[in-house]
Amino acid sequence: MAIDTADQNTTYDAVIVGNGGLGLSLGLVLARRGMRVAVVGESTRPFAASVAAGAMNGCFGEVTPTLLRSEYGRRKLAMDVRAAARWDDWERLLVEESDESRIRSANGTVVILNTIGVPGIDTAGYASIRQALHDYKEPYEDLDPEDVEWLAPEPKSRPLKAMFIPGEHAVDTPALLRGLTTAFGRQGGTLIDSHVSGLRLEGNRVTGVDLRTGGSLSSDTVVLAAGAASHDLLAGVDAEIRDRIPSLVSGSGVSLLVRTENGLIPDSVIRTPNRAFACGLHVVPRGDGVVYLGATNEILPRPCATAAIGEINLLLSGIRQLRADLVDGHIEKINVGNRPVPLDGYPLLGEAGVDGLWMMTGTYRDGLHQSPMLAEEMAARILGDAYDTDLDVFTPVRPPLQSLSREETLEVAVLHTMAVGVEHDWHLPEDLPPLIEEQFRRSFEQKLAEMESDFIPPPELLFFVEPEIESALRRYYDAYRNG
């Protein structure tokens, strides 16, 4: 149920800040366990990642060479695999508890390797996906690209290889959010259409939250699941604790809902490997002649609510890689979302250095896919039940998790930077790209030197770094400079 918060001063067993896929999922699991739970967030979700997500059940399709190279990346893949195994039961129960007839869409995923990407990213990414499928003994099938139904790119963008992963579907995001909202209410949960302005603290213990609309909510358990805005809510926490938690920047992304002229849509997800600091080009069937086309990724210091023309142009230019006659379709909606990206690139899961305060955010591109698993894992921690200690490495108060060496970070940053130009279909004299590449390498080396730290940011933060992000990195690194 929803309540008017203008004069509310109510006590709950748990207050969850954030009404996206993660926050609602945790709220639902706790409500099922008999807790009195409030989920707080503006009903319009103005900056959320969930509302703009293509929501692929992307597990193996998201694998990259750098992911497999890193211990923490391999742990993240293991989380994705565990989450994938939860979705059948999660969807079944959610359908029973709500008015939705289905939550997931798409019959598997087709991964294509086409002529647009660069070998060091796309070809290597395609090989890494296959390696991960082999390692986990996940079924897949090689396809002749000519036999992939619906796919009809222009000749210069034709696919060279294709494989079908039958176990990777997609989530119908609007249906998921409606279903979670309905099920949460029917389990006795309370939805509060407001914005949390700050935490209520007594010493080193949280006692609730203040609401921008007036009043407050009391609880000795508060979970920050507000995406990219979560770290801002730590403003009242002692700086010695707050600065040891990686703050969050926004992976701002733009996607389009397109109605095809002939009403034809694919049966499956069709996607490229991840490329150029983003999640690869992908099309997701949404039904009734509509497809989701996504998605861009730009690291910004704060969430953004509007779509840059350049981001839209990049998506529109990508149409040629999928189906040439999509240019005759019609844009029904432009989505803008903000993925929560911690300064070291890994999620923030667990207690946040203050008694009763928890964080469940920083999942970057994995939040919706991991939501059933993370909701159950976080609920177990909150309730004092047995839980998977493998996730403890992602505790919020932590030194930076380092995936790559300085040299590896530089090479990945330069490689993806140059790939951005290829994806934008740049046309340059042959002698210019090597010169541009060398300039970027020198620029990135200078940025690392100026930070004066042994810690290395993820490659995408090195590419998008600007004064506010650089200041946040310095503050976080300085908190651990002396061990």
TrEMBL record:
| Entry-linked InterPro entries | FAD-dep_OxRdtase, FAD/NAD-bd_sf
Is RNA-binding found in the keyword set?
no
One Pfam annotation reads DAO
- Keywords in alphabetical order: Oxidoreductase
Which GO CC annotations does the UniProt entry carry? Answer: cytoplasm
One Gene Ontology molecular-function label: oxidoreductase activity
Presence of the UniProt keyword tRNA processing in the record: no
Fetch the PANTHER family from UniProt. Answer: GLYCINE OXIDASE, SARCOSINE DEHYDROGENASE-RELATED
What is the name of this protein?
Answer: D-amino acid dehydrogenase small subunit
- Which species is this record about? Actinoalloteichus hoggarensis
